[in-house]
Design goal:
307 residues; 8 strands; Arginase, Chain A; 12% strand
Length: 307
Amino acid sequence: MSFTPPLLKIAFDPIYAHPLPEGHRFPMLKYELIPEQLLYEGTITSHNLFTPSACEDEVVLWTHDAAYIQKLHQQTLSAREQRHIGFPQSPQLTRREFVIAQGTIDCCHYALVHGVALNVAGGTHHAFADRGEGFCLLNDFAVAANYLLKKGLAHKILIIDLDVHQGNGTASLFEHEPRVFTFSMHGAHNYPFHKEKSDLDIALNDGTEDGLYLSLLRNTLDSLLEQVKPDFAFYLSGVDILWTDKFGKLKISMEGCRQRDEMVFTKLKQQHIPCVVAMGGGYSPDIKTIVEAHCNTFRVAKDIYSL
């Protein structure tokens, strides 16, 4: 597969930073600041940004159960279900998740042409077919992967999940789908405490540092690309692997996190595999650290795919 001259396309909608009750706002702030920083420094222009619409129910239902989607639309999630998600339900929050899912689908179309596309939000890998968990209502990678398969736009998909938390919802959703290979490299002693079974899980010990992390990833990616032979990839580039992260428990430096992104993009580009990226988690106490680490992903993507 060959790509046209690179045009970095990035999904962003102001609803990504939808205000929540006090105590929930900090995790959302980065969604405003990432595009602002990239525009300010000149890494992108407004031409690189596009605003997705909300994903249609018909498409979401290729992944999620009808009864669950009805609960989201009718705002009838139980108190227990809301606690598992971590956010109180609201029509705005539901719309936000449908917009994120469509943003990831739209990114697929751009990646098929230009090699890569990124969603400022997304990576909602804790959502199952019939429930949400861990700040995730819909599983955007799963929705987009099923869209590609349904439309015949991809035949073998590799999901590279490098968030510090296992992609438990994604693993469950594709447990019996041989056309999607799920790979999660995550903290062994981190949420979710009950792990699902991905096609490949690498559980890292607390305190894992750059050298071991990057070596494991390099060897694993080489093996997977040879074994799986994907014609499309999704990359969850969570920055909660950083040593500064409040919950991550790993010891990855900012530079190690940047090298991780560089490695993934380089190997996928070398084999002409289109890639869609979502940001995933990041919970360092200083918002500047979170934004800088996420912005590195965009900078590296631009550099690699401009070569």
